[in-house]
Amino acid sequence: MTQAQFPDEQTEEGAFKRQNDAFRDWVTADKSSGYCAEKGRYHLYVSLACPWAHRTIIVRKLKGLEDVIGMTVVDPIRDDESGWAFREGPVHTKDPINGFQFLREAYLATDPHYRGRVTVPVLWDTNTKRIVSNSDDDLMRMLNSAFNQFTNENLDLYPEPQREEIDRLNEDIYENVNDGVYRAGFSTSQAIYESAVRRLFDALDRLESRLANQRYLFGPTPLESDWRLFVTLIRFDAVYHGHFKCNLRRIVDYPNLFGYIKDLYQHDGVAETVNFDHIKRHYYVTHHDINPTRIVPLGPEQDLWSPHGRDHLG
Asked: Which residues form the GST N-terminal domain (predicted)?
């Protein structure tokens, strides 16, 4: 069988099965969880390349929490042995909080017996010197509500009346799109690859239809599901279409989806969270089993600032 990118997360049949998040404590506005929301106490470790981390970067930006929760960006090139590294660069930096050289050190400081893959994002507690959470799902919701007392931004990405529907759509998007591109790209079986790709494009077709008569997934305002979808769509034509062989169609071939990602990209502050240099170098250089030459493609050219044409939709 072909060597898998992550052998510990590969089934005998050749399917990629993502590991579970290791740390899932919560920060709350009160002291009920043991981690109380405080200004300056918590720090995000992220990669600009990673879609899971990108979700938390966007919510931090939208909620106006940049002065409340610090953030450090890792090198987009992940080492085979040591994983995500803190190095000085134009955007990524050394770790100003703990002086860690590798993110793995944060995992081992929290659990000395940890042996799984080190992932981003990570929310670090500077008081207890440990990881609170490495679950992007949980972190999106913590950032959405737990720190409201420290921001003037009253945006709610997970409103109570729509939570059941949001959760249901999130599951479909995660299974078939967010993780679907990885299930295609990391598969080591032709049949499993084809199944993942067909499920992916079936889901994209459904989303294209859903967005035909409404501006965002739930109407006139982008909610949590929109940003969960956006981080995959913005990487699709640049990476997943070619690198992960998700090439039945491009996002630019979907009129509604392409207008939709331009609309979200042009949302206040969001474009500055998108770094195509980090995105492309991470995937094309790090996944050497998929791209052994480690050549990073120049394209595609995308005009994400052109009119999105979705203002008229409710």
From this structure: 49-143
